[in-house]
Amino acid sequence: MRISYLECTRCGEHLSADRPQNVCPKDGGVLFVRYDLASLKGKVRPADLSGRVASMWRYAEVLPDADPVTLGEGFTPMLPSLCGGGALPRNGAEPRHHTSRELANVFIKDEGLNPTGSFKARGMSAAVTMAKHYGLKKLAAPSAGNAGGALAAYAAAAGIEAHIFMPKDVPLANRMECDYYGARVTLVDGLISDCGRMVAERKDKEGWFDVSTLKEPFRVEGKKTMGYEVAEQLGWKLPHGIIYPTGGGVGMIGMWKAFDEMEELGWIGRERPKMITVQAAGCAPIVKAWEGGKSASEMWAGAATFAAGLRVPKAYGDYLILEILKKSQGAAVAASDDEILAATRHWASVEGVFAAPEGAASLVAYQKLRATGFFRAEDKVVLFNTGSAYKYLDMIEAQERTVRLEPPTAGNIGGIIGPY
Ligand SMILES: Cc1ncc(COP(=O)(O)O)c(C=O)c1O
Ligand SMILES: [Zn+2]
User: Fold this and answer.
1) What's the gap in Å between 310 CA and the centre of ligand 1?
2) SS in 3 state form for the chain?
3) Overall number of domains in the chain
4) Structural domain boundaries, residue 374
5) Is residue 321 in a domain?
């Protein structure tokens, strides 16, 4: 689909999509890509999607009209959850399977199956597609880890240089994947916010195009396809709630945009899910702002959590996230690292889903919102697992050690036997 224009989410200014853009030149607002949806209405219907490619590019009409740089991202499984409504088992207790998959009303959207093992693939597929379309040669981004890995992979596939700035204590997988994908990596003794500053300082001199979270318009376009998939995979009826592990918030912002687009296309009605932000208790700026009734967040001091993707002390699009929480009558919930670790083991042992800690935080939030009565057992709720635990083995093992002071598998493995 041809893009009509880019629109500032703060002042409504229109900008051309004929050349690369970052943020609104007037007020730094996040730019949204706008299409002529009115002329599409009635011409493309949900039924037209059947038989299309099983990737996010199946929604071609609402994505940029450019040759995709794709590794097969998107159209991930929507797994009915076996343990949706149950309580987390206490230490050592047998997990309970108490619902059949047919009756499930809780779903795990498993984004861990994306290329590079996280949902960041979607945003970077779209951003790199457009970078290639514009003829850009050098991209740069700060990353909490997975965005860097995804950028590095798609840049490699497109033959574009990637310059990535990450905290020096990111998961090992993120450092190694960036290296193998051929990116130029700078490890920073600080957080993603410090990395962002470095990109901003150097980009003009180095000739880099900045693809930081929400500072270029197409990562949202890629991530919004999660919203289209939730609708399509649930039979074009949106759930009561969506729980989304929120760092920079791109997925939440993208899904909300997708719902508005689908309504304009006549694919869904006015109903919307309650949107839930879950953050780590050691870095919960959105939760704090939400609880304080604020429309923007403050920089979180001393951010610390093993859910590396949630270690974002200040989200550039915080005003958009907080607006969505309000409009959807949603909520913002914090999960401690201990709770996240227990949820990771629970999902793995009961569902067979070995989730990234960020994803497992969704289960913690769901349990808390059930306990307060915010969600009822019969409410249909989608829990986003945003990545694969296989990218976090070092982090998970280290976190296990802080809790148990013994190796994580000691309970189930009967010792190590030497060769005969
Ligand atoms: C696995 C995982 N989940 C969630 C997030 C947060 O994503 P967002 O910035 O879109 O809120 C990240 C970000 O790095 C991540 O890697
Ligand atoms: Zn503006």
Assistant:
1) 6
2) CCEEEEEECCCCCEECCCCCCCCCCCCCCCEEEEECHHHHCCCCCHHHHCCCCCCHHHHHHHCCCCCCCCCCCCCCCEEECCCCCCCCCCCCCCCCCCCCHHHCCEEEEEHHHCHHHECHHHHHHHHHHHHHHHCCCEEEEECCCHHHHHHHHHHHHHCCEEEEEEECCCCHHHHHHHHHCCCEEEEECCCHHHHHHHHHHHHHHHCCEECCCCCCCHHHHHHHHHHHHHHHHCCCCCCCEEEEECCCCHHHHHHHHHHHHHHHHCCCCCCCCEEEEEEECCECHHHHHHHCCCCCCCCCCCCCCCCHHHCCCCCCCHHHHHHHHHHCCCEEEEECHHHHHHHHHHHHHHHCCCECHHHHHHHHHHHHHHHCCCCCCCCCEEEEECEEHHHCHHHHHHHHHHHHCCCCCCCCCCCCCCCC
3) 1
4) 78-117+218-403
5) yes
